[in-house]
Amino acid sequence: MINDKKGEGKMKKFTALFAVLAVILVLGACGSGSKSSSGDSKNKELIVGASSSPHAVILEKAKPILKKKGINLKIVKYNDYVLPNKALDEGDLTANYFQHKPYLELEEKQKGYKFADVGAIHLEPLGIYSKKVKSLKDLKDGAQILVSNSKSDWPRIIGIFVDEGLIKVKKGVKLQDATFKDISDNPKNLKFKTSFDPGYLMTAYKNNEGDAVAINSNFVVAQGLNPEKDAIALESKKSPYANIIVTTEKNKNNKDVKELVKVLHSKEIQDFITDKWKGAVLPVNK
């Protein structure tokens, strides 16, 4: 009997201790949750991946405007065209700003991304650069043209050479879908070399590689050049290849992302783009 009473006392003490621990855990969890919620509301962070220039420069200009609206903009810079979409898909970014619509569509098709275009911000006219000739018509027979391995840029490059009267594409092929295999008429037998990473082409130009190099304006602007002055040929300003803000499909109605697009479409930011790049980067509001 004495042993049974002792056992009963121990059991009561264990039950009471268990109850106290349970209450502590519940209160701790509640306290932790409320703290996290409070922290999120006070420190809203919008993480946007961007090319260094002009994208990140434009975002830096928008940063204080967003700050006044209670949004802390964090800019993550990238020097390639692969990682920003990968990071967005993996949840490391809220949005990114570096690509145009055709490239986005190609990435979605090839990699299965579920993304949303939430607004076009600016156009960077793609240009042809050379240290050997002053115009495309000065290119010699068999001249080598160094081109990005990004297929979404190919119709833009082909369009420049078509506009200059140097090549023609096959009948029935839409220029926006054209590849270099669709060239039907090439009197000067120009050689288009398509194995280059977009980020390397500026280096190729500096090293005087090839006879001419097709380069996206963001790389040119980052090196202090002006496409309108330094290119021997430039993409038409009517080009549909505007750079866009992209987020995930499930995040397309995110209020902070919408506010970002609204700010980037504001007169203050559009005037900034026009004044800073003098036509090398063109503001778009759509």
From TrEMBL:
Pfam families: Lipoprotein_9. The keyword Transmembrane helix does not apply. It comes from Listeria grayi DSM 20601. The keyword Lipoprotein applies. Gene3D superfamilies: Periplasmic binding protein-like II. GO terms for cellular component: membrane. This is Lipoprotein. Its main location: membrane. It is a lipid-anchor. Belongs to the nlpA lipoprotein family. A lipid is attached at C30 (S-diacylglycerol cysteine). It is found in: Membrane. The lineage of its organism: Bacteria, Bacillati, Bacillota, Bacilli, Bacillales. Keywords: Lipoprotein, Membrane, Palmitate, Signal. It comes from the Bacteria. InterPro entries: Lipoprotein_NlpA.
